[in-house]
């Protein structure tokens, strides 16, 4: 693990946008919290942790409707996710990036391609067009996929299943395959991590991969050097 003091003035620097994808129960929330603390330390930037749906007040309302409300047809579901995403980007994500923050989101556009386009059978083209329009083509600098067998992931969940979690093993098998297919098609953006492992080991893998992908290696090395200097002087 790398620790270190904040070492860069990011007032005028562009922000970083990182999304996490994967099935429910793979450990995204835990890994995102650990990554948030580390990135704040080694970059000196404001780190915004958010999620979809539910990252804004409107998003919280839409989240309850989509995940815990009455059943709805797949097109309605897809459009509600797109509406949440449009508002999320316009009101939270894009302003944060413009001020030089790091934005970490638990799910983004790729979830709609996996769950609604493939899982619900709506087709990639229409769902991607709607969502690309909703976010004005804003895509993450890096996307971390925590990959895990859906059956194993389901055993990890402790809360009452929501509408998507109740969709069945075959549905979740299709969504997993969709995530892996998208990752294979865009290797420069995606980082695939086997989520069947120790929490700290997974976090270490994520940090190393992101440091290389986002050119953070010099910051990480300097942070480690500062720590070593501090220990030596004690």
From TrEMBL:
Catalytic activity of the protein: dTMP + ATP = dTDP + ADP
Record-level Gene Ontology MF annotations: ATP binding; dTMP kinase activity
Chain ranges of the Thymidylate kinase-like domain: 20-206
Keywords of the record, alphabetical order, are: ATP-binding, Kinase, Nucleotide biosynthesis, Nucleotide-binding, Transferase
The reply to whether Ligase figures as a keyword in the UniProt entry is no
Pfam families, alphabetically? Answer: Thymidylate_kin (PF02223)
Chain sites annotated for binding ATP = 22-29
Tell whether Transferase is among the UniProt keywords.
Answer: yes
Stored InterPro entries = P-loop_NTPase, Thymidylate_kin-like_dom, Thymidylate_kin_CS, Thymidylate_kinase
> Which SUPFAM superfamilies does the record associate with it?
P-loop containing nucleoside triphosphate hydrolases (SSF52540)
CDD domains (UniProt xref): TMPK (cd01672)
The organism sits in which domain of life? Bacteria
**Gene Ontology cellular-component terms listed:** cytosol
What EC number(s) are associated with this protein in UniProt?
2.7.4.9
Q: Which residues cross the membrane?
A: none
A GO biological-process term: dTTP biosynthetic process
User: Which major enzyme category is it?
Assistant: transferase
By sequence similarity, the record places it as follows: Belongs to the thymidylate kinase family.
Task: Name the HAMAP family for this protein.
Answer: Thymidylate_kinase (MF_00165)
What task does this protein carry out? Phosphorylation of dTMP to form dTDP in both de novo and salvage pathways of dTTP synthesis.
Protein name from the UniProt record: Thymidylate kinase
Q: Which gene encodes it?
A: tmk
């Amino acid at each position: 693990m790398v620790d270190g003091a904040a070492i860069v003035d990011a007032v005028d620097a562009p922000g970083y946008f990182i999304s996490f994808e994967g099935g429910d129960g793979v450990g995204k929330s835990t890994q995102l919290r650990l990554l948030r603390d580390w990135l704040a330390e080694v970059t000196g930037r404001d780190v915004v942790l958010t999620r979809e749906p539910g990252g804004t007040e409107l998003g919280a309302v839409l989240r309850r409707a989509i995940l815990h409300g009455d059943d709805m047809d797949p097109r309605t579901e897809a459009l509600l996710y797109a509406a949440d995403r449009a508002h999320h980007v316009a009101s939270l994500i894009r302003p944060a990036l413009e001020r030089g923050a790091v934005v970490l989101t638990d799910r983004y556009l790729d979830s709609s391609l996996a769950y609604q386009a493939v899982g619900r059978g709506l087709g990639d083209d229409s769902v991607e067009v709607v969502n690309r329009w909703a976010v004005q083509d804003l895509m993450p600098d890096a996307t971390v996929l925590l990959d895990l067998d859906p059956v194993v992931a389901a055993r990890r969940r402790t809360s009452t299943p929501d509408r998507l979690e109740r969709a069945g093993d075959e549905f979740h098998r299709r969504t997993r395959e969709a995530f892996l297919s998208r990752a294979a098609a865009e290797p420069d953006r995606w980082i695939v991590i086997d989520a069947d492992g120790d929490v700290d080991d997974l976090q270490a893998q994520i940090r190393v991969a992101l440091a290389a992908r986002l050119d953070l290696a010099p910051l990480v090395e300097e942070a480690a050097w500062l720590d070593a200097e501090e220990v030596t002087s004690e």
